Every structure is written in structure tokens, then in C-alpha cells.
Amino acid sequence: xxxxxxxxxxxxxxxxxxxxxxxxxxxxxxxxxxxxxxxxxxxxxxxxxxxxxxxxxxxxxxxxxxxxxxxxxxxxxxxxxxxxxxxxxxxxxxxxxxxxxxxxxxxxxxxxxxxxxxxxxxxxxxxxxxxxxxxxxxxxxxxxxxxxxxxxxxxxxxxxxxxxxxxxxxxxxxxxxxxxxxxxxxxxxxxxxxxxxxxxxxxxxxxxxxxxxxxxxxxxxxxxxxxxxxxxxxxxxx
Length: 238
Description:
The strands form two sheets. Strands 1, 6, 7 and 8 form a four-stranded antiparallel sheet that branches. Strands 3-4-2-5 form a four-stranded antiparallel sheet, with helices on one face. By secondary structure, the protein is an alpha+beta fold. It has four helices and eight strands, in the order αββαββαβαβββ. It has helices at 2-37, 69-89, 134-141, 170-195; strands at 40-52, 55-66, 97-106, 121-131, 164-166, 199-208, 212-215, 223-237. The radius of gyration is 36 Å and the shape is elongated. It has three domains: 1-38; 39-53 and 168-238, Translation Initiation Factor IF3; 55-166, Alpha-Beta Plaits (2-Layer Sandwich).
């Protein structure tokens, strides 16, 4: 019985050894295969497109002064009405026109500054145009000096009164731009694979960068440049 038991243990040990050796060869082959798949190339693809702004925000601001507050407020109301009439004359409707904030400053109530002020009260009024017709705004901007004939000086050189041109149609052009950026990235990857005597494999990872919208230049803010960069990592093989 002891001889048979010993023989059984020897055979079992031999089988286990053979199994371990076979497993080692399998694992080695798998490791080499995985290692070969780890050869990759990372590339970027850029897509750019120029578009026209489809929305515009136009702040119209003016100021007036007087020593009589009631008189000043009444005059500012008449000027507000004149500005709105000007805008409607140039094709803007009530939905595009908003009366913004109106601030009143009492110069005598200030804790700082000169006490010798010619006028006690200063009123600053704002009317905001929000429109989906940039061309209409452009035309009206060229005529805004007509308000000076009604003693209304529209402020146009302050940061708060800058005309803002916006592009809101990004979702409509996103798919085509992502496709273009991806194709350009693949072109670069193919060129790299060819130069390195390799074959381009499947995509390992892909990241779409954020879309950016900026003015094409400072002179034409109504023309926007949309830009996106995609980053893609491809497998390489011999």
C-alpha cells in the first residue's frame, strides 16, 4: 500500500510540474503579445471654422445732469423714449429692447471728492438691445449719432458699453468638426506608422478637447473662429 501511495504522489508531482511548465509558456506568450500591443502613438487633430455671429448685445448708455432732481428725471424719461423710438425706427421691436438699470448720483452726498460741483445730480441710463440680427445692429450703430441732435450722447468707448457678438449655433456644427479633427489626427498617425515601418491599429483612447469660440480679429468681432482639438492614441503593430 505504501509503495502504491508513494508512486501516486510521484505521478501527481510530475503532472503538476508539467502543468506549471505549460502554464509558464502560456503566460510568457500572453505577456509577449500584450507587450507588443502596448506599442502606441498619440496624435492630435485640429479643426477650425469661421462662422458669423448670430446674436448681438448692444448696450446704449447716456448720462444727464441737473440741480433739480425732478426736472432731471423727467428729462431722462423723455430721452429714454427718444432712444427707444430711434431703435424702433431701425427695425427693432419691443422683444429686442430692454430698459436697463438707471442710477442717480447725489454729488453732495458723497464722502469724498470736490465740494464745488456745478451740478448736484447725475443720472446714468441704460437701454439694452438683444437681437438675433447682427446686420440690423450694425446698420443702427452707423446712425446712432443722430441722437446727438436730441442732446443724447450715447457712450460707446467704455467697457460696459461694448457691443457683444455671440455665436449660439455650436451644437449644429460640432459633429462635423469633431469628424474633421478625428480624420486629421488619423492622417498624422498613418504618416507616423508608415515612417516607422509599422501598421496602424485600433484606437486605444480618444479625448475630445473643449470647443473655443473667439473673434477672428479685433476689427471684425462679428466673425468668429470656432476651434477644437482631439487627442487620439492608436495601437501600432509590425
